[in-house]
Write a structure and sequence with these properties.
By secondary structure, this protein is an alpha+beta fold. 36% of the residues lie in helices and 17% in strands. A hairpin with a 2-residue loop joins strand 11 and strand 12. The longest helix is centred in the N-terminal third of the chain and has 25 residues. The chain is globular and about 60 Å long.
């Protein structure tokens, strides 16, 4: 008897059963049931809330927060959530990690050509030769996620069960590197790469990633509700919004220390507005992260930030998505405008965010 084949067959059966369970759970909730609309409670600027409602998908969004910064001032709004409620900003975190990395460069704590093998406990080989600059530009050759079969299966199962698929420590991230295959050094978006970039700064700064976020970004800028949860869900603030997918199913918060530099920050609209103001006036630590240093497909990229030409303007932006949240954050330095939008949904808010930015201040 082929035990390996039998084991694989059992795995396929289990995965199929879980997929069926996930489908049944999704079908049990009508897509969009309970979505926000123009009758939902609003806090903050009601005009901004109304404009945001026109931009987002018609259904499948269960709470929303918006910040708009223009030369005329800042407007904030939330729908079906307190104005100071925090949302997972997902991969917008990568832009923050880029700022922290650029600030560490300015402090001479690291150098752009510093190799991972100089910082982390890695075996000799391709991963050890990856530079910090390559990580910051998404051209390290690392895959988007760990390709270990066990990790892929666990991630799929946790997603079906509406649980956090990332449950790793900083040490786990280093262990992943010792088992990963490095591809060609070409533009390739990598969550793993940015988790590694953030964790690689820890030994050189003497600060954990949550401490780097607090001491290098949040505290200097006065961002009161801008943090990486520590200790799992017990580390969430009292106004943390419950994440939901587009079908309305509640999702476990994505709180883990290992992959936090790739997508672990929570924030409210006021904090994101202050961050936007600092990005626009150049006072944010690590502002050099916004400077383009390489091409990325049809766009350009700085340290974690994408730069796109849209209707004659250069938009500097990043989006985000977790199991229960979507987000988009963009600035137009020439016009002095910025927009942050985040929602309890897995529907994309990219078009809504860009649309709000293009109209901001007009």
């Amino acid at each position: 008897m082929n035990l390996k084949r039998r084991g694989n067959r059992k795995l396929v059966i289990v995965m199929a059963a879980l997929a069926t369970l996930g489908a049944l759970l999704g079908a049990a909730l009508r897509p969009g049931a309970g979505s926000i609309d123009d009758h939902s409670p609003v806090e903050g600027d009601t005009d901004l809330a109304a404009v945001a409602l026109e931009q987002i998908p018609n259904s499948g969004v269960y709470a929303l927060t918006v910040a708009e910064v223009t030369p005329e001032g800042t407007r904030l709004a939330s729908i079906n959530a307190p104005l100071d409620a925090t949302f997972e900003i997902g991969s917008v975190t990568k832009g923050v990690t880029g700022l922290i990395y650029s600030d560490a460069l300015a402090r001479n704590e690291v150098h752009s050509e510093t190799q991972l093998g100089e910082i982390l406990d890695l075996q000799e080989g391709d991963p050890a030769e990856i530079t910090l600059a390559e990580l910051a530009q998404h051209r390290s050759g690392l895959p988007r996620l760990s390709q270990k079969p066990g990790d892929l299966v666990r991630s799929s199962v946790m997603s079906i069960l509406a649980k956090n698929p990332y449950n790793t420590s900083p040490e786990d991230v280093s262990a992943e590197l010792n088992q990963v295959s490095v591809g060609e050094k070409q533009p390739r978006y990598s969550n793993l790469g940015f988790a590694v970039l953030g964790q690689a700064l820890v030994p050189r700064t003497g600060l954990s990633y949550p401490e780097l976020v607090e001491q290098r970004i949040a505290s200097p800028l006065g961002l009161e509700n801008f943090y990486v949860p520590v200790g799992g869900e017990e580390g969430l603030d009292e106004n943390a919004v419950q994440g939901r997918d587009a079908q309305g199913r509640t999702q476990q918060a994505w709180t883990d220390s290992g992959h936090a530099p790739a997508g672990g920050i929570r924030a409210d609209a006021a904090s994101m507005a202050l961050l936007a103001e600092a990005l626009l006036d150049g006072s944010v630590p690590g502002i050099e992260a916004l400077e383009p240093t390489a091409n990325f497909d049809e766009d350009r990229i700085g340290s974690g930030w994408f730069l796109s030409e849209v209707q004659g303007s250069t938009v500097i932006w990043h989006n985000g998505g977790t199991g229960g949240f979507s987000s988009w954050f963009g600035i137009d330095q020439e016009r002095g405008t910025a927009v942050f939008i985040a929602g309890a949904t897995t529907s994309s808010l990219d078009e809504a965010g860009l649309g709000l930015l293009l109209e901001a201040g007009r």
